[in-house]
Protein backbone atom coordinates (compact mmCIF):
# COMPACT_ATOMS: atom_id res chain seq x y z
CA UNK A 1 0.00 0.00 0.00
CA UNK A 2 2.81 2.38 0.93
CA UNK A 3 4.62 2.06 -2.44
CA UNK A 4 1.34 2.89 -4.19
CA UNK A 5 0.96 6.09 -2.16
CA UNK A 6 4.55 7.09 -2.85
CA UNK A 7 4.08 6.47 -6.56
CA UNK A 8 0.88 8.54 -6.54
CA UNK A 9 2.63 11.45 -4.82
CA UNK A 10 5.54 11.25 -7.25
CA UNK A 11 3.04 11.35 -10.11
CA UNK A 12 1.38 14.46 -8.66
CA UNK A 13 4.73 16.19 -8.24
CA UNK A 14 5.30 16.04 -11.97
CA UNK A 15 1.94 17.65 -12.81
CA UNK A 16 0.88 21.29 -13.02
CA UNK A 17 -1.33 22.77 -10.25
CA UNK A 18 -4.45 22.55 -12.44
CA UNK A 19 -3.75 18.91 -13.27
CA UNK A 20 -3.16 18.12 -9.59
CA UNK A 21 -6.49 19.72 -8.68
CA UNK A 22 -8.35 17.77 -11.35
CA UNK A 23 -6.76 14.45 -10.30
CA UNK A 24 -7.68 15.05 -6.66
CA UNK A 25 -11.21 16.03 -7.69
CA UNK A 26 -11.89 12.85 -9.69
CA UNK A 27 -10.21 10.66 -7.05
CA UNK A 28 -12.77 11.60 -4.41
CA UNK A 29 -12.31 15.31 -3.84
CA UNK A 30 -15.73 15.97 -5.38
CA UNK A 31 -17.32 14.36 -2.32
CA UNK A 32 -15.69 16.88 0.01
CA UNK A 33 -16.65 19.73 -2.31
CA UNK A 34 -20.26 18.52 -2.45
CA UNK A 35 -20.49 18.31 1.35
CA UNK A 36 -19.07 21.83 1.74
CA UNK A 37 -21.48 23.19 -0.89
CA UNK A 38 -24.52 21.60 0.76
CA UNK A 39 -23.44 22.91 4.16
CA UNK A 40 -22.99 26.43 2.78
CA UNK A 41 -26.44 26.33 1.15
CA UNK A 42 -28.04 25.18 4.41
CA UNK A 43 -26.35 28.01 6.33
CA UNK A 44 -27.49 30.58 3.77
CA UNK A 45 -31.02 29.24 4.02
CA UNK A 46 -30.85 29.37 7.84
CA UNK A 47 -29.68 33.00 7.81
CA UNK A 48 -32.52 33.91 5.44
CA UNK A 49 -35.09 32.28 7.73
CA UNK A 50 -33.61 33.98 10.80
CA UNK A 51 -33.67 37.37 9.08
CA UNK A 52 -37.31 36.86 8.12
CA UNK A 53 -38.12 35.81 11.70
CA UNK A 54 -36.40 38.84 13.26
CA UNK A 55 -38.19 41.28 10.95
CA UNK A 56 -41.48 40.32 12.61
CA UNK A 57 -40.51 42.08 15.85
CA UNK A 58 -40.48 45.77 16.69
CA UNK A 59 -37.89 47.30 19.00
CA UNK A 60 -38.04 50.37 21.22
CA UNK A 61 -35.28 52.50 22.70
CA UNK A 62 -35.77 53.49 26.34
CA UNK A 63 -33.91 56.24 28.19
CA UNK A 64 -33.34 55.65 31.91
CA UNK A 65 -32.93 58.51 34.39
CA UNK A 66 -32.21 57.84 38.07
CA UNK A 67 -32.56 60.41 40.90
CA UNK A 68 -29.44 62.18 42.15
CA UNK A 69 -29.94 60.79 45.64
CA UNK A 70 -30.03 57.16 44.50
CA UNK A 71 -28.12 54.95 46.93
CA UNK A 72 -28.52 51.71 45.02
CA UNK A 73 -25.38 49.66 44.43
CA UNK A 74 -24.57 47.51 41.37
CA UNK A 75 -26.23 44.64 43.25
CA UNK A 76 -29.58 46.16 42.25
CA UNK A 77 -28.62 46.03 38.57
CA UNK A 78 -27.51 42.43 39.02
CA UNK A 79 -31.07 41.62 40.05
CA UNK A 80 -32.35 43.48 36.96
CA UNK A 81 -30.21 41.35 34.66
CA UNK A 82 -31.24 38.19 36.50
CA UNK A 83 -34.91 39.09 35.98
CA UNK A 84 -34.48 39.76 32.25
CA UNK A 85 -33.18 36.21 31.75
CA UNK A 86 -36.86 35.30 31.85
CA UNK A 87 -36.90 36.21 28.14
CA UNK A 88 -34.91 33.07 27.33
CA UNK A 89 -36.74 30.56 25.12
CA UNK A 90 -36.05 26.90 24.53
CA UNK A 91 -35.55 26.59 20.76
CA UNK A 92 -35.57 23.08 19.34
CA UNK A 93 -33.43 22.07 16.38
CA UNK A 94 -36.56 21.51 14.30
CA UNK A 95 -37.86 25.01 15.06
CA UNK A 96 -34.45 26.59 14.49
CA UNK A 97 -33.94 25.13 11.02
CA UNK A 98 -37.63 25.00 10.10
CA UNK A 99 -38.81 28.53 10.89
CA UNK A 100 -35.54 30.32 11.70
CA UNK A 101 -36.56 31.04 15.28
CA UNK A 102 -33.75 32.69 17.20
CA UNK A 103 -33.32 34.21 20.64
CA UNK A 104 -34.10 37.95 20.67
CA UNK A 105 -31.41 40.30 21.94
CA UNK A 106 -31.28 43.32 24.23
CA UNK A 107 -28.84 46.21 24.01
CA UNK A 108 -27.71 48.21 27.04
CA UNK A 109 -25.98 51.39 25.93
CA UNK A 110 -24.22 54.44 27.35
CA UNK A 111 -23.91 57.37 24.94
CA UNK A 112 -22.35 60.80 25.18
CA UNK A 113 -23.63 63.40 22.72
CA UNK A 114 -21.67 66.65 22.86
CA UNK A 115 -20.63 65.65 26.38
CA UNK A 116 -24.11 64.86 27.76
CA UNK A 117 -24.26 61.27 29.04
CA UNK A 118 -27.36 59.08 28.85
CA UNK A 119 -28.17 55.46 29.76
CA UNK A 120 -30.31 53.60 27.21
CA UNK A 121 -31.92 50.18 26.78
CA UNK A 122 -32.86 48.81 23.35
CA UNK A 123 -35.45 46.06 23.80
CA UNK A 124 -37.97 44.06 21.78
CA UNK A 125 -41.38 45.65 22.19
CA UNK A 126 -42.85 42.39 23.48
CA UNK A 127 -40.36 42.46 26.38
CA UNK A 128 -40.79 46.13 27.22
CA UNK A 129 -42.93 45.41 30.28
CA UNK A 130 -40.36 42.86 31.46
CA UNK A 131 -37.52 45.39 31.20
CA UNK A 132 -39.45 48.27 32.77
CA UNK A 133 -40.74 46.07 35.58
CA UNK A 134 -37.25 44.77 36.33
CA UNK A 135 -35.82 48.30 36.47
CA UNK A 136 -38.68 49.81 38.48
CA UNK A 137 -38.45 47.00 41.03
CA UNK A 138 -34.90 48.06 41.92
CA UNK A 139 -35.07 51.77 41.04
CA UNK A 140 -38.64 52.80 41.96
CA UNK A 141 -37.95 56.54 41.55
CA UNK A 142 -36.39 56.37 38.10
CA UNK A 143 -37.98 57.70 34.91
CA UNK A 144 -38.20 55.69 31.69
CA UNK A 145 -38.81 57.50 28.42
CA UNK A 146 -39.24 56.08 24.93
CA UNK A 147 -36.99 57.95 22.51
CA UNK A 148 -36.04 57.76 18.87
CA UNK A 149 -32.90 55.95 17.82
CA UNK A 150 -29.94 58.34 17.98
CA UNK A 151 -28.11 56.35 15.26
CA UNK A 152 -30.68 56.77 12.49
CA UNK A 153 -29.39 60.18 11.32
CA UNK A 154 -25.78 59.02 11.14
CA UNK A 155 -24.61 58.16 7.59
CA UNK A 156 -24.20 54.52 6.61
CA UNK A 157 -21.68 55.26 3.86
CA UNK A 158 -18.08 55.70 4.97
CA UNK A 159 -15.90 57.65 4.70
CA UNK A 160 -17.94 60.86 4.27
CA UNK A 161 -17.43 64.61 4.60
CA UNK A 162 -19.79 65.07 7.55
CA UNK A 163 -18.17 62.79 10.16
CA UNK A 164 -15.00 60.90 10.87
CA UNK A 165 -15.26 57.54 12.63
CA UNK A 166 -13.19 55.39 14.96
CA UNK A 167 -14.64 52.20 16.35
CA UNK A 168 -14.01 48.64 17.43
CA UNK A 169 -15.61 45.64 19.04
CA UNK A 170 -14.48 44.90 22.60
CA UNK A 171 -13.42 41.34 23.39
CA UNK A 172 -11.98 39.38 26.30
CA UNK A 173 -8.21 39.04 26.66
CA UNK A 174 -8.49 35.42 27.85
CA UNK A 175 -10.99 32.57 27.64
CA UNK A 176 -14.55 33.41 28.68
CA UNK A 177 -14.26 31.08 31.68
CA UNK A 178 -12.04 33.63 33.44
CA UNK A 179 -14.15 36.41 35.01
CA UNK A 180 -13.67 40.17 34.92
CA UNK A 181 -13.09 42.22 38.03
CA UNK A 182 -16.51 42.75 39.62
CA UNK A 183 -18.02 45.33 41.95
CA UNK A 184 -17.34 43.51 45.29
CA UNK A 185 -13.62 44.11 44.70
CA UNK A 186 -14.27 47.87 44.41
CA UNK A 187 -15.52 48.09 48.00
CA UNK A 188 -13.23 49.56 50.65
CA UNK A 189 -12.44 46.86 53.20
CA UNK A 190 -12.56 49.25 56.17
CA UNK A 191 -15.38 51.66 55.39
CA UNK A 192 -17.35 49.19 53.20
CA UNK A 193 -17.87 52.11 50.80
CA UNK A 194 -18.22 51.27 47.12
CA UNK A 195 -15.88 53.16 44.82
CA UNK A 196 -18.15 53.24 41.78
CA UNK A 197 -16.15 51.91 38.81
CA UNK A 198 -18.39 53.78 36.36
CA UNK A 199 -17.50 57.17 37.83
CA UNK A 200 -14.33 57.55 35.76
CA UNK A 201 -16.03 56.23 32.61
CA UNK A 202 -18.89 58.74 32.90
CA UNK A 203 -16.49 61.56 33.73
CA UNK A 204 -14.32 60.86 30.69
CA UNK A 205 -17.32 60.51 28.38
CA UNK A 206 -18.70 63.84 29.62
CA UNK A 207 -15.45 65.63 28.75
CA UNK A 208 -15.81 65.34 24.99
CA UNK A 209 -16.33 68.53 23.00
CA UNK A 210 -19.15 69.95 20.94
CA UNK A 211 -19.82 67.96 17.73
CA UNK A 212 -18.32 64.80 19.25
CA UNK A 213 -20.13 61.59 20.17
CA UNK A 214 -19.08 58.43 22.02
CA UNK A 215 -21.28 55.32 21.90
CA UNK A 216 -20.77 52.27 24.10
CA UNK A 217 -22.96 49.26 23.29
CA UNK A 218 -23.41 45.97 25.14
CA UNK A 219 -25.56 43.37 23.31
CA UNK A 220 -27.08 40.77 25.65
CA UNK A 221 -28.73 37.50 24.61
CA UNK A 222 -30.23 35.19 27.26
CA UNK A 223 -28.72 31.75 26.87
CA UNK A 224 -28.82 28.20 28.16
CA UNK A 225 -26.55 28.14 31.20
CA UNK A 226 -25.76 24.41 31.25
CA UNK A 227 -23.52 24.54 28.18
CA UNK A 228 -21.25 27.43 29.13
CA UNK A 229 -21.05 26.31 32.76
CA UNK A 230 -19.66 22.96 31.60
CA UNK A 231 -17.03 24.76 29.53
CA UNK A 232 -16.05 26.93 32.49
CA UNK A 233 -15.80 24.03 34.94
CA UNK A 234 -13.73 22.08 32.41
CA UNK A 235 -11.20 24.92 32.43
CA UNK A 236 -11.17 24.96 36.25
CA UNK A 237 -10.64 21.19 36.39
CA UNK A 238 -7.83 21.50 33.85
CA UNK A 239 -5.99 23.94 36.12
CA UNK A 240 -6.56 21.69 39.14
CA UNK A 241 -5.45 18.57 37.26
CA UNK A 242 -8.88 16.98 37.55
CA UNK A 243 -10.99 15.31 34.89
CA UNK A 244 -14.60 16.24 34.27
CA UNK A 245 -17.38 13.66 34.49
CA UNK A 246 -17.50 13.43 30.69
CA UNK A 247 -13.77 12.74 30.51
CA UNK A 248 -14.09 10.09 33.22
CA UNK A 249 -16.74 8.18 31.28
CA UNK A 250 -15.53 4.99 29.60
CA UNK A 251 -16.83 3.03 26.67
CA UNK A 252 -18.29 -0.48 26.66
CA UNK A 253 -14.96 -2.08 25.66
CA UNK A 254 -13.07 -0.15 28.32
CA UNK A 255 -15.45 -1.39 31.02
CA UNK A 256 -14.89 -5.00 29.90
CA UNK A 257 -11.11 -4.67 29.89
CA UNK A 258 -10.88 -2.51 33.03
CA UNK A 259 -10.10 -5.54 35.31
CA UNK A 260 -6.99 -6.21 33.23
CA UNK A 261 -5.95 -2.55 33.32
CA UNK A 262 -6.47 -2.22 37.07
CA UNK A 263 -5.07 -5.63 38.11
CA UNK A 264 -1.61 -4.21 39.04
CA UNK A 265 -3.23 -1.51 41.17
CA UNK A 266 -5.48 -4.03 42.93
CA UNK A 267 -2.53 -6.38 43.57
CA UNK A 268 -0.50 -3.49 45.01
CA UNK A 269 -3.44 -2.46 47.18
CA UNK A 270 -3.79 -6.02 48.61
CA UNK A 271 -0.04 -6.49 49.09
CA UNK A 272 0.43 -3.22 50.98
CA UNK A 273 -2.72 -3.50 53.03
CA UNK A 274 -4.62 -0.75 51.27
CA UNK A 275 -3.81 2.92 50.89
CA UNK A 276 -3.96 5.29 47.98
CA UNK A 277 -2.91 4.32 44.50
CA UNK A 278 -0.17 6.18 42.68
CA UNK A 279 -2.72 7.93 40.49
CA UNK A 280 -4.65 9.25 43.50
CA UNK A 281 -1.43 10.39 45.16
CA UNK A 282 -0.44 12.32 42.04
CA UNK A 283 -3.84 14.04 41.90
CA UNK A 284 -3.74 15.10 45.55
CA UNK A 285 -0.18 16.30 45.11
CA UNK A 286 -1.24 18.48 42.18
CA UNK A 287 -4.18 20.01 44.05
CA UNK A 288 -2.19 20.72 47.20
CA UNK A 289 0.63 22.35 45.27
CA UNK A 290 -1.38 24.82 43.25
CA UNK A 291 0.16 28.28 43.25
CA UNK A 292 -1.85 31.10 44.86
CA UNK A 293 -2.62 32.45 41.39
CA UNK A 294 -3.87 29.06 40.13
CA UNK A 295 -5.97 28.56 43.24
CA UNK A 296 -7.47 32.04 42.84
CA UNK A 297 -8.23 31.32 39.17
CA UNK A 298 -10.05 28.09 40.03
CA UNK A 299 -12.12 29.84 42.70
CA UNK A 300 -12.93 32.75 40.38
CA UNK A 301 -14.01 30.45 37.54
CA UNK A 302 -16.25 28.41 39.84
CA UNK A 303 -17.75 31.61 41.26
CA UNK A 304 -18.51 32.90 37.77
CA UNK A 305 -20.13 29.59 36.81
CA UNK A 306 -22.43 29.79 39.85
CA UNK A 307 -24.46 32.72 38.43
CA UNK A 308 -26.70 33.26 35.42
CA UNK A 309 -24.98 34.24 32.19
CA UNK A 310 -25.64 36.04 28.90
CA UNK A 311 -24.15 35.90 25.43
CA UNK A 312 -22.40 39.28 25.14
CA UNK A 313 -20.95 41.41 22.37
CA UNK A 314 -19.58 44.91 23.04
CA UNK A 315 -18.82 47.78 20.64
CA UNK A 316 -17.45 51.29 20.98
CA UNK A 317 -17.82 54.12 18.43
CA UNK A 318 -16.32 57.60 18.38
CA UNK A 319 -17.81 60.13 15.93
CA UNK A 320 -16.75 63.69 15.27
CA UNK A 321 -16.68 66.39 12.66
CA UNK A 322 -13.36 66.50 10.78
CA UNK A 323 -12.31 69.67 12.63
CA UNK A 324 -12.80 68.12 16.10
CA UNK A 325 -11.59 64.59 15.32
CA UNK A 326 -9.04 63.50 17.96
CA UNK A 327 -9.44 59.76 18.66
CA UNK A 328 -6.30 59.56 20.79
CA UNK A 329 -7.68 62.12 23.25
CA UNK A 330 -11.12 60.51 23.55
CA UNK A 331 -10.56 56.79 23.07
CA UNK A 332 -7.49 56.56 25.31
CA UNK A 333 -9.39 58.10 28.22
CA UNK A 334 -12.44 55.89 27.71
CA UNK A 335 -10.39 52.71 27.43
CA UNK A 336 -8.40 53.80 30.45
CA UNK A 337 -11.66 53.71 32.41
CA UNK A 338 -12.56 50.32 30.91
CA UNK A 339 -9.18 48.88 31.95
CA UNK A 340 -10.17 49.03 35.62
CA UNK A 341 -12.55 46.10 35.02
CA UNK A 342 -9.56 43.89 34.23
CA UNK A 343 -7.44 41.68 36.45
CA UNK A 344 -4.03 40.38 35.37
CA UNK A 345 -4.63 37.07 37.15
CA UNK A 346 -8.10 36.65 35.67
CA UNK A 347 -9.48 38.49 32.61
CA UNK A 348 -9.79 41.92 31.01
CA UNK A 349 -11.32 43.77 28.06
CA UNK A 350 -9.49 44.95 24.95
CA UNK A 351 -10.33 46.21 21.44
CA UNK A 352 -10.48 43.57 18.73
CA UNK A 353 -7.75 44.26 16.17
CA UNK A 354 -9.76 42.52 13.43
CA UNK A 355 -12.71 44.92 13.78
CA UNK A 356 -10.81 48.10 14.72
CA UNK A 357 -11.38 50.73 12.03
CA UNK A 358 -7.88 52.23 12.22
CA UNK A 359 -5.57 50.41 9.81
CA UNK A 360 -1.79 50.92 9.64
CA UNK A 361 -1.28 49.08 6.35
CA UNK A 362 -3.62 48.79 3.36
CA UNK A 363 -5.69 51.90 4.09
CA UNK A 364 -8.42 50.79 1.69
CA UNK A 365 -9.46 48.17 4.27
CA UNK A 366 -10.54 50.93 6.66
CA UNK A 367 -13.57 51.81 4.51
CA UNK A 368 -15.02 48.29 4.69
CA UNK A 369 -14.39 48.04 8.43
CA UNK A 370 -16.13 51.35 9.09
CA UNK A 371 -19.18 50.36 7.04
CA UNK A 372 -19.47 46.95 8.72
CA UNK A 373 -19.01 48.33 12.23
CA UNK A 374 -21.62 51.07 11.80
CA UNK A 375 -24.10 48.65 10.18
CA UNK A 376 -23.68 46.10 12.97
CA UNK A 377 -23.99 48.79 15.64
CA UNK A 378 -27.18 50.24 14.16
CA UNK A 379 -28.73 46.77 13.77
CA UNK A 380 -27.64 45.74 17.28
CA UNK A 381 -26.39 42.53 15.68
CA UNK A 382 -24.87 39.73 17.73
CA UNK A 383 -24.41 37.42 14.73
CA UNK A 384 -21.93 39.54 12.81
CA UNK A 385 -18.45 40.65 13.79
CA UNK A 386 -16.16 39.01 16.29
CA UNK A 387 -17.17 35.94 18.25
CA UNK A 388 -19.47 36.52 21.22
CA UNK A 389 -18.56 35.49 24.76
CA UNK A 390 -20.27 34.78 28.09
CA UNK A 391 -20.49 37.17 31.05
CA UNK A 392 -22.55 36.47 34.15
CA UNK A 393 -24.97 38.90 35.79
CA UNK A 394 -22.41 40.11 38.35
CA UNK A 395 -19.95 41.07 35.62
CA UNK A 396 -22.69 42.78 33.61
CA UNK A 397 -23.86 44.76 36.65
CA UNK A 398 -20.29 45.97 37.15
CA UNK A 399 -20.01 47.13 33.54
CA UNK A 400 -23.50 48.66 33.33
CA UNK A 401 -25.37 50.07 36.31
CA UNK A 402 -27.08 53.35 37.00
CA UNK A 403 -24.82 55.75 38.91
CA UNK A 404 -25.26 56.24 42.61
CA UNK A 405 -25.14 59.42 44.67
CA UNK A 406 -21.31 59.30 44.67
CA UNK A 407 -21.15 60.02 40.91
CA UNK A 408 -21.32 63.80 40.62
CA UNK A 409 -20.71 64.48 36.93
CA UNK A 410 -22.78 67.59 36.00
CA UNK A 411 -23.40 66.34 32.45
CA UNK A 412 -25.10 63.10 33.54
CA UNK A 413 -28.87 63.16 33.03
CA UNK A 414 -30.81 62.69 36.30
CA UNK A 415 -34.38 63.02 37.48
CA UNK A 416 -34.97 66.18 39.49
CA UNK A 417 -37.91 65.23 41.69
CA UNK A 418 -39.18 62.16 43.45
CA UNK A 419 -42.42 60.67 42.16
CA UNK A 420 -45.45 60.48 44.42
CA UNK A 421 -47.60 57.36 44.58
CA UNK A 422 -51.39 57.21 44.59
CA UNK A 423 -53.05 56.72 48.00
CA UNK A 424 -53.70 53.09 48.85
CA UNK A 425 -57.31 53.71 49.96
CA UNK A 426 -58.30 55.54 46.77
CA UNK A 427 -61.71 54.26 45.55
CA UNK A 428 -61.52 51.95 42.57
CA UNK A 429 -64.02 54.05 40.59
CA UNK A 430 -61.79 57.13 40.81
CA UNK A 431 -58.73 55.10 39.81
CA UNK A 432 -60.51 53.74 36.73
CA UNK A 433 -61.85 57.19 35.79
CA UNK A 434 -58.47 58.90 36.07
CA UNK A 435 -56.69 56.05 34.30
CA UNK A 436 -59.12 56.38 31.38
CA UNK A 437 -58.47 60.14 31.20
CA UNK A 438 -54.70 59.66 31.21
CA UNK A 439 -54.95 56.91 28.60
CA UNK A 440 -57.03 59.07 26.25
CA UNK A 441 -54.70 62.02 26.78
CA UNK A 442 -51.68 59.89 25.94
CA UNK A 443 -53.19 58.72 22.65
CA UNK A 444 -54.48 62.14 21.58
CA UNK A 445 -51.34 64.16 22.25
CA UNK A 446 -48.31 64.06 20.01
CA UNK A 447 -46.01 64.28 23.05
CA UNK A 448 -46.12 65.11 26.73
CA UNK A 449 -44.09 67.79 28.47
CA UNK A 450 -40.46 67.00 27.76
CA UNK A 451 -39.18 69.46 30.37
CA UNK A 452 -37.11 71.19 27.69
CA UNK A 453 -34.40 68.54 28.01
CA UNK A 454 -31.39 68.48 25.72
CA UNK A 455 -31.67 64.92 24.47
CA UNK A 456 -35.46 64.68 24.47
CA UNK A 457 -35.78 67.77 22.30
CA UNK A 458 -34.05 65.76 19.60
CA UNK A 459 -35.20 62.21 20.18
CA UNK A 460 -38.06 62.16 22.70
CA UNK A 461 -41.42 60.61 21.81
CA UNK A 462 -43.38 60.51 25.04
CA UNK A 463 -42.77 59.75 28.67
CA UNK A 464 -44.33 56.77 30.39
CA UNK A 465 -44.32 57.70 34.09
CA UNK A 466 -45.05 55.43 36.99
CA UNK A 467 -48.47 55.85 38.67
CA UNK A 468 -48.50 59.17 40.51
CA UNK A 469 -50.84 60.98 42.89
CA UNK A 470 -54.02 61.27 40.87
CA UNK A 471 -54.84 64.66 42.33
CA UNK A 472 -51.93 66.24 40.47
CA UNK A 473 -52.63 68.27 37.36
CA UNK A 474 -52.31 66.58 34.05
CA UNK A 475 -49.25 67.33 31.97
CA UNK A 476 -49.47 70.33 29.71
CA UNK A 477 -48.92 70.13 26.00
CA UNK A 478 -45.80 71.67 24.52
CA UNK A 479 -44.46 71.59 21.03
CA UNK A 480 -41.25 69.64 20.74
CA UNK A 481 -38.48 71.97 19.51
CA UNK A 482 -35.86 70.79 17.10
CA UNK A 483 -32.21 71.13 17.94
CA UNK A 484 -29.20 70.94 15.68
CA UNK A 485 -26.31 69.37 17.60
CA UNK A 486 -23.81 71.20 15.44
CA UNK A 487 -23.62 74.91 16.04
CA UNK A 488 -22.29 77.23 13.34
CA UNK A 489 -21.18 79.84 15.85
CA UNK A 490 -18.25 79.21 18.21
CA UNK A 491 -19.81 81.59 20.72
CA UNK A 492 -22.93 79.43 20.91
CA UNK A 493 -20.79 76.31 21.35
CA UNK A 494 -18.89 77.81 24.26
CA UNK A 495 -22.06 79.08 25.92
CA UNK A 496 -23.93 75.78 25.54
CA UNK A 497 -21.02 73.74 26.88
CA UNK A 498 -20.04 76.00 29.75
CA UNK A 499 -23.31 75.63 31.62
CA UNK A 500 -25.05 72.29 31.92
CA UNK A 501 -28.83 72.23 31.41
CA UNK A 502 -30.91 71.59 34.50
CA UNK A 503 -32.04 68.30 33.01
CA UNK A 504 -29.43 66.43 31.01
CA UNK A 505 -29.90 64.33 27.94
CA UNK A 506 -32.73 61.82 28.23
CA UNK A 507 -35.83 60.99 30.16
Keywords:
507 residues, alpha+beta, Vanillyl-alcohol Oxidase, Chain A, domain 3, 3 domains, 11-stranded mixed sheet, 11 strands, disordered C terminus
The rough form would be described as globular
What share of the residues lie within helices?
Answer: 40-55%
**Tally of discrete structural domains:** 3
| Class from helix and strand fractions | alpha+beta
What does this structure look like?
The protein has 507 residues and is α+β, with helices and mostly antiparallel strands. The protein folds into three domains: 2-50, no CATH class; 59-228 and 300-415, Vanillyl-alcohol Oxidase, Chain A, domain 3; 428-498, no CATH class. Helices cover 43% and strands 15% of the residues. The chain has helices spanning 2-13, 17-54, 74-84, 93-99, 128-138, 198-205, 225-240, 245-248, 252-271, 278-288, 292-304, 327-338, 364-379, 393-399, 428-444, 454-459, 490-498, and strands at residues 59-67, 106-113, 116-124, 143-147, 164-172, 212-222, 309-320, 349-351, 389-392, 414-415, 460-463. Strands 1, 2, 3, 4, 5, 6, 7, 8, 9, 10 and 11 form an eleven-stranded mixed beta sheet that branches. A hairpin with a 2-residue loop joins strand 2 (106-113) and strand 3 (116-124). The longest helix has 38 residues, at 17-54. Mean pLDDT is 78; it is low at 441-452 and 462-507.
Amino acid sequence: MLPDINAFLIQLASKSPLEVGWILFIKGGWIILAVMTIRAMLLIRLYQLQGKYLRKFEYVLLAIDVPKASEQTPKAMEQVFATITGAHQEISRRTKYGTGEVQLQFSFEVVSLDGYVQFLVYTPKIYRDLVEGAIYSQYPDCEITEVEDYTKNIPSVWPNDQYKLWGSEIVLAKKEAYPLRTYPSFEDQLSQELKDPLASLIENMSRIHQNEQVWLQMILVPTENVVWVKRALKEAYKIAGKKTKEEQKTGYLDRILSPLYNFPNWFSWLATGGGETKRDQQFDFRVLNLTPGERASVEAIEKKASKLGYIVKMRIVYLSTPEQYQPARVINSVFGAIKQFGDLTSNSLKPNKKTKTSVVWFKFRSKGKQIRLMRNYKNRSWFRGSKWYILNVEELATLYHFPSITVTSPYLKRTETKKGEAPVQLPASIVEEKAAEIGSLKTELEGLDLDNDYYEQKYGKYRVPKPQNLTEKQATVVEKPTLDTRSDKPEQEAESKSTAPSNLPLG
